[in-house]
Amino acid sequence: MTQSALRRFGVERKKNDGLTDHRLRPIDEWSRQARLLWKTDKGRIPAMPALTGAGNHPISTVMGKLSILFYPDPILRKTAEPVEQVDDELRRLLGQMLETMRAAPGVGLAAPQIGLSRRAFVMDPAREGEPPAPRCLINPEILELGEITRIHEEGCLSLPGIFAEVERPASIFMRYVDPSGELREERFEGHAATVAQHELDHLNGVLFVDHLSRLKRDFLIRKFRKARREEDAV
Ligand SMILES: [Zn+2]
User: Could you tell me the pTM of the whole model?
Assistant: First the structure.
């Protein structure tokens, strides 16, 4: 997602005012258990620290920028493969992805967007003026989707220049592996929930425009292609 979209629409539009309502819809039995666990022991799940590597040493973020693939690169439409090993190489790459995302500037970047068809993404949903909150999610899964939705004007670093409002659940409960290799379960809400769902979509070959009507999607894709052609011609 792009930072400019957020700047232009700094105020979150809520479809309803129920964001504090944490009713959740279980997806399967495991998630029902997870929900019970969450309800009965909220403090059990620690807040994710800023990006840390093995032994909780901060990962260096002074690294080179990666190239971001644009639509219609076929990798963006592939279902990404699970990450099999969390090692220094992966941690280095995630650090580079964060650098690349910040430089873009964006609030999320998924591995397929840099040409790696693996299930991992980085995000930093902090708003302007808020302290940075970088996150790396490896093999993420959504365990529960909240019933309340929110509408947010989304953009994508792989579709620069086009934006559209997308409605998604305002709260999600996720399970993922963090950069130190630990399995975590965590609830994301509001903007963070939107960003996480947008990025997780990338791991399944889905782009934010796929959530729009065909008419709107085709219009935006045409607009994007035209802008790219004009850019190439300059
Ligand atoms: Zn995107």
Answer: 0.74
